[in-house]
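User: Round two. Same drill as before: sequence, then structure, for each protein.

Assistant: Same drill it is. First protein:
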Amino acid sequence: MRKSIKIVLRALIGIGALSLMVAGAAQARVDGDTIILGSAISLTGKYSTNGIHAKNGYELTVKKINEAGGVKVGGKSYKIKIVYYDDESTPARGAQLAERLIKQDGVKFMLGPYSSGLTKAVAPVTEKYKIPMVEAEGASRSLFTQGYKYLFAVLSTSEQYLSSSIALAAEIAKKNGRKPQDLKVAMAFENDPFSLDVRAGVADDISKYGMKIVIDDKLPRDLSDMSATLTKVRALKPDLLVISGHSKGAATAARQIKEMKINVPMIAITHCESAKVIDKFGPSVNGFLCPTQWSETLSYRDNFFGTAAAYDKLFKATYSNYKNVPYQSAQASAAVMVWIDAFERADSFDTEKLRDALADTNMQTFYGGIKFSEAGNNTAKPMVLRQIQDGKFNVVAPSKWASHPVEWPRKPQ
């Protein structure tokens, strides 16, 4: 008899647990008047600086839309909430957490992680379960050659990041009576999908102009020391030094360029803002060329945030520890805006209808135009190049968007 009671109790507990799991899944998808989005994001580990920038961008848009009355679907207003898990800057952990968000938490609407490597780990998971994901931080062009149908990216792809610096070097050479093919280029890149794609874009443009690569190094895994590369730079005296290693790599490069008194006429480096190189290294970084997905000086606008300058002002008022708004935050905000637009156009929570609405996105935002190719990348927005001039980021290329002339050669203090 006791054995039978135990069996019944176990069955009842199992049914209860199952019902809780089902209820949890339903709540995680749409909980009453709240739409739940999910994201595995780097809050610790080597990508944590940019992961936190992205999270702040997500949250700023959520706060603004909720204060404005929310999202209208089916004649009802819904608030937005994002559930986060820390992927610890580890691709395997990111994939595991994406599966947890979908299978255990019942999330049906995803935002991306930080970095191309983490996005490459998460995308097969969201694709497997046919869960749409709007991502803002994975720029690797190889993400958009896999045939994914549920992946949409608001940012420009990685091969565009530093290629404009090659064109700018060629332009300056011609103005000074030199041939572009006489220029020497030194390169140092992290061995990760994003940076290697940046390198591919740079290499393509170097080949186009016939320039000579004199250094082509991979940065050490922990990104804490690039003195070996800089020693070669001092000896070979290149005309242009190009570096990509996310925030930690940018900080290391800026520190060691200062310490080793490396003076190259032109230095182009990714992630200047998020590494806070101006705050940390002062006048020594004057003249650095820094690619950006977005700038507050651009003439982009929308009916939600207003102008790029208005977004900049609101972000700094909300997060007072920022002197410059990282583009990682701006594009994260844009990703949430894309979801809001898709919900209202689809007028549904059906994931297939939402996928189709996302595919048909064609909108202007404070971050720039957003329109997705069949592969899911944004074809409506260019990269721009800024230069650090007297402690400020000023747009210098392409000329259509330039707010200031380029300063060459760079004159660190």
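Second protein:
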Amino acid sequence: MSLDSNLFKRGMRRLAAGVSIVTTFEHGERHGMAATSVCSVSADPPTLLVCVNRTATTHAIIGRAGFFCVNLLAENDDDLARRFSTPADRESRFRDRDWTTLITDAPALVGSLASFDCEVIESIDVDSHTVFIGRVKAIELWHERVVPLVYLDGRFDTLRGQGTIKDGCR
């Protein structure tokens, strides 16, 4: 029995996901894309993964460069997320924001919730995507306020905490 991929996509849109900009660098040029498929793998050593569609232009560049940076977006970054989601906006993606580098040459977004600078240690092809597993080489927590940008039901939104954080739990 074959499942309808559109039904799968509609179902997955009901899972709220944090929005990130995944960046890399090659031949003097910065590259990046918006992503919701970012996940921690291990805390010791710090490792995370990102799933990238093989049709995305950033896919091949991450594979060749061997590094990427995951930048977690905050509540007011919805315009930036749209810019990194639209091929027509490719030329303007890195404008009007402050970018730096940490260990690799991948751009880190100054002012994001966090930037995780990673070296690719493994890549696994799964159907239309590649899972890039990255060993975290550097982390920058740009500020203490944490109100993430999320993607839910085909739109960007925010989560605003109602409690206080105590020992990592609410």
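Confidence is low (pLDDT under 50) at residues 162-170.

User: Perfect.
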